[in-house]
Amino acid sequence: MQYTDDLFKINLSRAIKESGLSNAEIARRVNVGRSTITQWVKGVSSPTQSKIIKIARTLNQEPSWFFIEHSKDEEITKSGLNQKQLTIARTIDPDISEDHLKQILTYIHFIQEHEANAN
Asked: Which of 46, 97, 114, 119 shows its CA 20 to 30 Å from the CA of 2?
C-alpha cells in the first residue's frame, strides 16, 4: 500500500507543477481546503476515489495516471505514444519494453489505416 501512496504523492506533485495551478485553485475546483491538497502532496492523508476523479479532471489526467510509475515515460513517448496510450500500456504492464510499445503502436496504426481504407 505504501508504494501506491508514494506513487500518488509523486504524481500529484508532478501534475500540479505541470498544470501551473496553485494549490488554492486546485482545492477550490476539487472542493476541499488548501491544507488538504498539501496533506495529499506530503502523503499525510489520501483522497477518496471521488476526489481522485475530481483531481484528475482538474489536472487534465486520467485517474489511473496517478498510480503508474512514470520514470521511463520520457524515453517511451519518443516512440510516438501519446499520454493516454502510454497510460493504457502501463496499466496493462508497468514493465512493458519500448520495443513492445513500438510493436503495439505499429499495430494500432495498421488497424486505423485498414479501417480508413474500408470506409
From this structure: 97
**Residue 87 pLDDT > 60, yes or no?**
yes
- Which amino acid would we find at residue 24? A
| CA gap 94, 72 in Å, rounded | 10
Whole-number Å distance between alpha carbons of 49 and 47: 7
pLDDT digits (tens, 9 = 90+) for 1-16: 566 678 899 999 999 9
CA–CA dist 33, 37 (Å, integer): 7
| Cβ neighbourhood burial of 40 (10 Å; 0-12, 13-18, 19+) | buried
First to last CA, the chain: 48
